[in-house]
Amino acid sequence: MNHRAAHRAHAFTLIELLVVISIIALLIAILLPALGAARRSSRAIKCASNVRQLGMASLMHQSDHKENYPYMWVSDADGFYRTWREQIWEYTGKAPEMYDCPEEAEHRFSEGYNGRSADDILNDSFVDEEVYLDGGYGAAGVHWVSNDGAESCFGRSTGNERSDGRVRSPTKCIMFGDGYTASAGDFYQWWIWSDFAAGNTAGYSRDVEAIDVGNQRHSERANYAFADGHVETLDNDDIPCNPDECWWSVEYDPHS
To answer: Which residues of 33-52 are buried (b: 16+ CB within 10 A; e: fewer)?
Structure first.
């Protein structure tokens, strides 16, 4: 009899159980947003690391090619198209994951193209599929229009590579960054450019592009690698493009 009374004294009542459940639910509601923010922050940091490594790979390419940055894209001697991604492939340690932003689930370089892996495509000199690979990052070619306009770090084709000496302010010249301008279809998923302006028109912002993937991936900001190798996380409005200063061009003031 005393044993049963003691058992009843230690048992939870329905009200006590509901209070415990409510407290647990409240804690989950408080912690989940913080955990989600921590995961997003971790992915943004990983993305910045990828962009930094791609920047360093571009600078190593530059060191081995008469101080020239990689070209944007080119048709080689066999008639196959190649982009800057193929040019720095060896310098990345042949790591396809380096070309992917961990925040981007759909557009992934490492998933390959047309049933072939990125490794297979990049290691095959006679396959014209590298330009069709999806990707997390695009090279800056904002003011390029038919070889006219304000030049970017990466040249348009062989013979048009941009040497280090032609970049007036490497700390204020973007090489590439999160996302790409996709309005031209899956052939151009490797550069950032303008659909709505002539070559030297000032005032460019990625906000106004019709199809611009990834320019607000990280809490409405994006990661960018600059011509000196450093990386910044920037809002679209943080990037100047005016008569006094433009970070999309090798010329510090191409619109003046």
So the answer is: eeeeeeeeeebbebbbebbe
